[in-house]
Amino acid sequence: MLKKISVISLIILMAFVSVIPMNRESVEAKSIRAFKEELQALREKYEKGEEDKKFTEAEIEKKKQTVSDINDEINTIEVQTQQLTDEIEVLNQNILEKEEEIKKIINYYQISNGESAYLEYIFNAVDFTDFIYRLAIAEQLSTYNDNLIDEYDKMIKENESKKEDLANKKIVLNNKQNDLEKELLSLDTQLGEILEESVTTLEEIESIEETIKTYESFCDLDEDIDACIERYNNSSKLPPGTAFYRPVVKGKVSANYGWYYPWGTKTWHYGMDISQTGHGAPVYAMANGRVSYITRKASCGGNMLYIEHVVDGVNYTTGYFHLATIEVNVGDIVTYNTVVGTVGGNGSIETWDKCSTGTHLHIQFGQGHFDATKSGYYTKFTAKAFNPRTVLNLPSEGSFFYDRETKY
């Protein structure tokens, strides 16, 4: 994933090298001390962001727990509502049964006003006294059932009231749940902004740390970095380095140093090939140094660039072949963050480069520095070639990488 380039990063990159003159005039000059002060402010900002992130995450968890509790309460209400509905249905059925019993009793009562022969027959009374007794019982049963129905009606009304209360409570809970979900969405958005700002701040921190690391070894603490670079441009000194970095952000090692068979013929390979970068991908200097030599549109190698380095006190020269473009000039001071060219090697585009089998970057390392004022620069460079893997961290042949990680 390509890092976002912040305003600070742009300032750093424009202040890094003398290869972007169109922008450097408008850049505010900075010293190592100024960068360190800015770095401290960014670290404090990042720590504050981390605190805000933890607080927001805790608030989100609280809201989520509350939403979960409300869901449980809503489910309980739904169960209670169903239970009340079932009870009302049973009570209604009981009322219907009692109404039928009352109708029978009333019917008996009406019949009791008819002829005694029928009354005795219907009620099976042995005598009139027995009949009166039975009639009194019937009246008592009727009154009892009336009272029972009244109680049932009362219970039904109470249950209906409870159902209404539960329904209202459910509405309140649903509204509260909706409000909480809106708050959660807002908190999630807020957390996303905090995380994005933290990532940007962290990238700015890393960029400034790299700037300080790059220049503090050869620039004075309060010296303007532009002036420091200018000083090195006008001297025979090279900016020191401590490690080599991969020349591209991503790619695949397609050919190692040593014997290989590019056209079916056994050939000695003086460097390493990196493919799958994409045509036009930026090529970076592999360490701090100075551009020492450039060859353009060679029939074998195309656009070729050479940079001199001093890494851990040892002199090296690196070569970058099959370039689509060269973005620096001889004598330019560069850092390992300087884009020195772009990947080429495509025969249909870089038609002059006859030795390339497709889009790729060839990198090569030589021990020492070489006199660019005399002929045979490539020959001298090749004579001192060595396996890049001894100083550069790259995966095995056929494997991909996705950053510019250094070995050290």
Q: Major beta sheet, specifics? A: 12 strands, mixed
Q: Cα distance, first to last residue?
A: 23 Å
Supply the helix-strand structural class. Answer: alpha+beta
Question: What is the CATH domain class of the largest domain?
Answer: Mainly Alpha
Strand content is 15-25%
Number of domains: 2
The chain-level mean pLDDT equals 80
Task: Work out the number of β strands.
Answer: 14
Fold-level CATH name of the largest domain: Helix Hairpins
Q: Into which percent range does the helicity of residues fall?
A: 40-55%
Task: Write the CATH architecture name of the largest domain.
Answer: Orthogonal Bundle
Shape: elongated
Spans of 5+ residues with little confidence (pLDDT < 50)?
1-28, 115-122
User: Number of helical segments?
Assistant: 7
List its traits.
two-stranded antiparallel ribbon; alpha+beta; 12-stranded mixed sheet; Glucose Permease (Domain IIA); elongated; 408 residues; Helix Hairpins; 2 domains
